[in-house]
Amino acid sequence: MLRGLYTAGAGMISQQRKQEMLTNNMANVNTPGYKADQGSLRTFPNMMIQAMGTDHQISGRSPIIGELSTGVYMQEGTPNFRQGDLRETNNSTDIALLQADTPIDDETGLPAMLAFQVQNDDGEPRYTRNGDFTIDSDGFLTMGSGHYVLGVDGDPIEVGNENFRVNQNGEIFTDDAEEELLGQLDVLLIPDSGQLVKEGNGFLRYDGDEEIASIVGDDDILYQLQQGYVERSNVDAGQTMTEMMAALRNFEANQKVLQAYDQSLERAVNDIGRLR
């Protein structure tokens, strides 16, 4: 009976964690470039049940009755890096990255992902699909709260003001008659997207062993940059709400099982075990 308590409790915990993950997805449904987390439930290793006190005539061992489940748990949430829809903003500082087919990782079966390169607070390179850029007081193209967007040379890109134009290859020109080249946005190929870790503020950290390389000038991988657009979150609000309701129902079902076990234990202690 106590094992049943643990099994029902494990089910409640796993559904609670799934609900928290789905709630975070819904909270970022309007965050540009956000990639929805997804998780799967797995069972703990099952235990074999044997009959005690009855040895098998041939093997001399107790006969096996069957397996006993020991509960479930939710694995770590992994981001879904599917391309999000584009939304037109008409802001010159908004740049969306639209990727075509990318190579598939042989081990994981996941497609590679394209991303911009930015700097975090420590000056280290990080990756993002959030093209909702701004210009700081020094005229540099930044993301979020002053994080520099890096060009193909690995340095921050100075655009001066919002009067600039970006072509489909990421080259940035002044929006005047001279059309001076100010720089070029770097687009990187991340071979194993399953090794990307979210760090918050739209940053992604790569923990894989394969080398990340720039694909600027590589004709084998097709992509486009669209100025005046941002990539929307790839969260499906309708599906997420359905999954949230299902997680809530599963939580309540496990809760009722837990209450039933608790009532049975209460009766065993207070009624059956009472001396008459």
Description:
The protein is α+β, with helices and mostly antiparallel strands and about 280 residues long. It has two domains: about 1-30 and about 235-275; about 80-230, no CATH class. Helices cover about 20% and strands about 30% of the residues. The protein has two helices and 22 strands. The chain has helices at about 1-25, 235-270, and strands spanning about 35-40, 40-45, 45-50, 65-70, 70-75, 80, 85-90, 95-100, 115-120, 125-130, 135, 140-145, 145-150, 165, 170-175, 180-185, 185-190, 195-200, 205, 215, 225, 230. A four-stranded antiparallel beta sheet has the order 10-9-17-20, with no helix packed on it. Helix 1 packs antiparallel against helix 2 (about 235-270). The chain starts with a helix and ends with a helix. The model has no long low-confidence stretch (mean pLDDT about 85).
Q: How many structural domains in the coordinates?
A: 2
Task: Tell me about the largest β-sheet.
Answer: 4 strands, antiparallel
The N- to C-terminal Cα distance equals: 25 Å
Please identify the structural class as seen in this structure.
alpha+beta
Order of helices and strands: HEEEEEEEEEEEEEEEEEEEEEEH
The amount of beta strand, in percent, is 25-35%
Low-confidence stretches: none
Helix and strand arrangement:
Blueprint: H1 2-27, E1 37-38, E2 41-43, E3 47-50, E4 64-68, E5 72-74, E6 78-79, E7 86-88, E8 95-99, E9 113-119, E10 125-128, E11 133-135, E12 141-143, E13 147-148, E14 164-166, E15 171-174, E16 181-184, E17 187-190, E18 196-200, E19 203-206, E20 213-214, E21 223-227, E22 229-231, H2 237-272
Antiparallel strand pairs: 1-6, 2-5, 3-4, 7-22, 8-21, 9-10, 9-17, 11-12, 12-13, 14-15, 15-16, 17-20, 18-19
Helix pairs in contact: 1-2
